[in-house]
Amino acid sequence: MSIREMIIEFMEEKKYKPMLKEELAVQFDIERRDLESFYKILEGLEREGIVIKAKNDKYGLIDNDYLVAGILEGNERGFGFVIPNDKIREDIFIPAENMNGAMHGDRVIANITRRQETDRREEGEIIRILERNNKIIVGTFEDNRNFGFVVPDDHKIGYDIFIPKAKTRNAKTNQKVVVEITTWPEPRRNPEGKVIEVLGYLDEKGTDILSIIRQFNLPEEFPNKVQEAAKNIEQEVDPKEAKRRVDLRHLNTFTIDGIDAKDIDDAVSIEMKDNGNYYLGVHIADVAHYVREKSTLDKEALQRGNSVYLIDRVIPMLPKELSNGICSLNPNVDRLSLSVFMEIDKKGKVVDHEIVEGLINSKQRLVYDDVSDFLENDDEVAKEKLSKVAEDLKLMEELCHILYEKRERRGSIDFDFPEAKIILDEKGVPIEIRKEERRIANRLIEEFMLVCNETVAERFFWSQTPFLYRIHEEPSAEKIATFSKLIHNFGYTLKGQQEVHPKELQLLTKEIRGKKEETLISTLMLRSLKKAIYSNEPGIHFGLAAQYYSHFTAPIRRYPDLVIHRIIKAYLNGKLSDQVQGKLEANLPEIAEHTSMTERRAEEAEREVEDMKKAQYMTKHIGEEFEGIVSSLTNFGMFVQLENTIEGLVHFNNMLDDYYHFDEEKYYIIGERTNKIYRLGDMIKIRVIDADVMRRNIDFELL
Predict the structure, then answer these.
(1) CB of 141 within 8 A of CB of 171?
(2) How far apart are CA 352 and CA 345, in angstroms?
(3) Which of 71, 110, 254, 667 has its CA 20 to 30 A from that of 90?
(4) pLDDT value at 442 more than 90
(5) DSSP state, 90?
(6) Using CA atoms, how far apart are residues 356 and 245, in angstroms rounded to an integer?
(7) CA distance 618 to 693
(8) What is each CA distance from 390 to 258, 284, 374, 377, 562, in whole angstroms?
(9) Partner residues linked to 140 by β-bridges
(10) pLDDT tens across 603-657, in order?
(11) Which residue from 46, 30, 245 is spatially nearest to 128, judged by alpha carbons?
């Protein structure tokens, strides 16, 4: 049992009386050298909203009957919702007058003021702000002679920011600016701030994406210390280190990536054993050898958590000397690897495996499209390019299908979402948006990384080593019941709604494949599931129907993978002492929480950029007509998705042939006079009538 769990268990005892942190340290017999780590665990528990520190500095568990800890989700109309940490309790409604200066994204504690009733959710009042989320805000500046104010880009922040005249930095009306909050809001008083950066007008090249980078506080430039540390790293493998390793340079190893990829994490190799089993090698860049724990590079990588991909640019986790240089598995150069060899039988079972610190030399850099053209179409040009690896690729395709079928048998859900490919011109303006195909080469690498991640996770679960897992908890019965009700409108049903097995959802994805409602139902299904997170505690991955899962295969762009590599290398070299394991137990919960947050931040930023570019693209198509599918219904209109993945709203105000309303029970939109009905999945024709780049909104009207 970890010290964190012991603290919680101790406080759960009926005889427990709140204690000072020093008293708790004595109670747990914490030595002087470990006090800092112990206090950090206590602070983490407070930040998570598991314990509360009273005004007398004594710690006790939060009384969940009356208090709820969670993240505040704001609304532009002033009210908000507290999303509880436990994910079991429903969101708590916070009226505008009870926000008490809290802002969207803050970690808060709410006091319950009204219990849940049949037709009303619980209500509360914010009584403590545990952690502020919006120290920096991006928005549009408005000059008002003696002062200015900034309208935040994130409309969930329900305040304009007041800017004193002396702190406007000479910003002009309609310019994008970055504001630092100097005074937090209070009841009936807006927050106050100062402009710290003027980004430019929205139509200037790069301002739009730069504003999103600042909005999500993504660290763009590396600090000088980090750049210096990166420049001091040798760009060739140290011969002494090479000699220490297992030499794998004889293997026919190669990489398969997108044509624009520069940070190449993974390479693969394959052989057939005499017993007819496949011998798959997955070779991952040994980033941990170069990025040492607690180093300048490591601290920066932890802060960033992951790389972020924003259409025309990458914000890397590591400087290019590592991400594109010595760590990237470029062809025809020696590279250090952490290699996993798996013997896999004809049913897809990993019957044996080995993990080694390796030295590899990738023989070729392959591109997804070439590999897919060769395997799918026997394309002559592709065949010529891939002649040295053609037999290996055919063997890999064989194994890919076996692994996929094994996952399918156990119930793994395979979402096949069409991703948008957004093409920009030299000025950053979108000139084309289309669906991006997911072809055999992509699936092949995906299957190999999945089986590798599972193999590593299971190995270290049974070794009882502190570890970082990738978990995906079971969905709530309420969300599955709602989803089941929605799909009933299409004639589909689910078994076992109380405890649905991923197999049931997988069967549904097969049933809808190729049908007009496939993307829609897949999206609704995904929204019904919980988000995958990192955790120091093992748990199932519901979506993959996997008992053990981790992220191991991308240490150049994900910090959890880097942490796992360090643990594995310490284990392989006999350096996992009790003291090291104790430090891991203390630090892993915080790393898991932080990297789960940075991953969500990256996903939101990537989605914001995509939505903005889609709105920008549609400004050139106002007045044009398209066919689309009804993808979502609300009490103010219906969303329609076009073939190229762009989605827009048909507002009831723009449905002029009747007065329409949303029947939530039957889940359709119906006209009062004509009884005309619109359901999810209906194909309709629309005209584009507006596109608001600032708010990422696109408006349609029915033809």
Answers:
(1) yes
(2) 10
(3) 667
(4) yes
(5) P
(6) 8
(7) 9
(8) 19, 22, 8, 13, 32
(9) 151, 176
(10) 999 999 999 999 999 999 999 999 999 988 899 999 999 999 999 999 999 998 8
(11) 46
Q: Give pLDDT, residue 484.
A: 87
Distance, CA of 20 to CA of 10 (rounded, Å) = 14
Structure tokens at 172: 């002009």
CA 437: distance to chain centroid? Answer: 21
Q: Are 147 and 165 in contact (CB under 8 A)?
A: yes
Tell me the pLDDT tens digit for each residue of 235-276: 999 999 999 999 999 999 999 999 988 899 999 999 999 999
Of the chain, the end-to-end C-alpha distance in Å amounts to 64
* Tens-digit pLDDT profile for residues 423-433: 999 889 999 99
* Helix residue ranges per DSSP H, 411-540: 440-462, 477-488, 502-512, 518-528
Distance between CA atoms of residues 106 and 100, nearest Å: 12
DSSP assignment of 200-221, as one string?
A: EETTSTTHHHHHHHHHTT---S
Segment 315-321 long-range contacts (CB within 8 Å, at least 24 positions apart):
315/213, 315/218, 315/219, 315/220, 316/263, 316/557, 317/556, 317/557, 317/558, 317/559, 318/230, 318/287, 318/291, 318/556, 319/222, 319/226, 319/227, 319/230, 320/230, 320/262, 321/230, 321/231, 321/233, 321/235
- The residue among 247, 334, 329, 336 whose CA lies nearest residue 290 is 336
- Three-state DSSP string of 101-122: CCCCCCEEEEEEEECCECCECC
Q: What is the pLDDT of residue 270?
A: 98
CA-based angle 33:37:41, to the nearest 5?
150
Token pair for 322: 């590592």
Nearest of 116, 389, 126 to residue 271 by alpha carbon: 389
Please give the Cα distance from 325 to 226 (Å, whole number).
15
Q: What average pLDDT is seen over the chain?
A: 92
Count, residues in the chain: 703
Token pair, residue 628, equals 């689309």
**Ramachandran class of 281: left when φ > 0, alpha when ψ lies in -120 to 50, beta otherwise:** beta
| Token pair listed for 72 | 């505040």
User: What single-letter amino acid sits at 295?
Assistant: S
Residue 319 has pLDDT above 70, yes or no: yes
Residue 87 has pLDDT above 70, yes or no: no
Averaged pLDDT, 441-468: 96
- The answer for residues whose C-beta is within 8 angstroms of residue 628's C-beta and 6 or more apart is 640, 641, 642, 643, 648, 683, 684, 685, 686, 700
Mean pLDDT, residues 11-26: 89
Contacts of 586 (CB under 8 A, 6+ apart): 3, 4, 37, 38, 40, 41
pLDDT average, residue stretch 463-481:
91
In contact, 358 and 283? CB cutoff 8 Å? yes
Average pLDDT value for residue range 82-91: 80
How many Å apart are CA 383 and CA 43, to the nearest integer? 59
Quote the CA–CA distance of 551 and 457 in Å, as a whole number: 8
Strand order across the beta sheet in which 246-247 lies: 246-247, 350-361, 334-344, 278-285, 266-272, 254-257, 364-367
Cα–Cα distance, 448 to 283 (Å, whole number): 11
β-pair type (683-692, 697-702)? antiparallel
Sign of torsion, CA 458 463 464 467? Answer: negative
